Amino acid sequence: MNASHISFVARLTLALRAFWRILQDGRFADELQRLEQSRPVTPAPAPAPLRETLPESALQLLALLQQEGRFIDFLQEDVNSYSDAEIGGAARVVHAGCHKVVQDYLRIEPVRSEAEGARLTLAAGFDAAAVRLTGNVVGQAPFTGTLMHRGWRVAEITLPKLAEGHDARVLAPAEVAL
User: For the chain, give me the number of helices (H) and strands (E)?
Assistant: First the structure.
């Protein structure tokens, strides 16, 4: 059986059993070595090409979240000395500003269209980047389970163009009152 059809836990268990048997049984080790040497070597698949990331876009989004919602200020604040009511009040202001930024510059949609709590089946070849399996994950697809969270994906980004020479690393300029 191809190792890709065996679950990770089953492969780990098999590896540990084989390890101890190789140490204890010389004939088994010899046979395993012959098998390994006679197996045709197939090249590993080429890694997926890395996409160029645009850190300026991420920094620009953080700057907008700071500008509208004081997001960085909130995250940098040590909230341990504040009451839950004070934190809740601040969170409402941060939430409103950050919500505005998301609404203005991103179109976000659910990854899955089903309602949370719905039973669904994931066929072989499902997009593992878009769906995370949790709980007792054993074997191969199809998997049947309960949708706990629909997930989110960005369908469209409409960030404004940065001015020439703008330093995107400055999320919020220092303010000096005169």
Answer: 5, 4
